[in-house]
Known about the structure:
The protein is mostly loops. 0% of the residues lie in helices and 0% in strands. It is elongated. The N and C termini lie far apart (118 Å).
Amino acid sequence: xxxxxxxxxxxxxxxxxxxxxxxxxxxxxxxxxxxxxxxxxxxxxxxxxxxxxxxxxxxxxxxxxxxxxxxxxxxxxxxxxxxxxxxxxxxxxxxxxxxxxxxxxxxxxxxxxxxxxxxxxxxxxxxxxxxxxxxxxxxxxxxxxxxxxxxxxxxxxxxxxxxxxxxxxxxxxxxxxxxxxxxxxxxxxxxxxxxxxxxxxxxxxxxxxxxxxxxxxxxxxxxxxxxxxxxxxxxxxxxxxxxxxxxxxxxxxxxxxxxxxxxxxxxxxxxxxxxxxxxxxxxxxxxxxxxxxxxxxxxxxxxxxxxxxxxxxxxxxxxxxxxx
Length: 324
């Protein structure tokens, strides 16, 4: 039967339980309050039982399962501290499993009132891992994003994502690999609502780089272009591609080199749908050159012309070649 008792100051209560995993103290109703003290749970015997088991009743209340209030003073300790021993543990530090169609977040962090240097999540490791430091695996089909970043106007001085590489490594900072016949884009940038000065991609290279700043390698044979640029009528005031050389250099702005016996043209311009005043190539210069504006050098012997102009009957009112 239940017994009412009290313990004097500095008293010690020892209850010898029957076995690990069995109840030694049962509180049917009420709270347990510890003032200026700790609650320590120490186990010696290995057991599959939980050290702390909290089961909430099926109610619509908004109380928390665990509520930790750190106080207003400068506290150096952690609200929750999990330390794994020296053994090779296979369990998770924190494991969450949703058994129903819950609409709440698994982890929700609000930093509204913290200092500007506070971070919501910090993951650091000093071990050379062979597995990802952070791994996200989802089952798609409902249109939900794996990661979503919404940057408001109040975050104008910070970036959505910042990656800083401080070591001399050979790996990629970002690597995208398709394991299946995905029809989506690897990277899709939509700037419909951006400011007119915003750019989709900005790349700043090393001063004396020996490698290409942007390297594109195409291996397909199905007619796909390596780069496809579609300029609409609304883009009439700017060029689809613009190259500006501001330094005094000896290199070519555009260089096309054939590495094999390709039968395609180096540059092919089709003006079938263009306006009557459109020109395939325009070269202008206000500099007194000592070298030709256009230089053509060929190795003859196979009967190929250096320049070939074929004028059809539809072109009867103009000269195939005009020099003014």
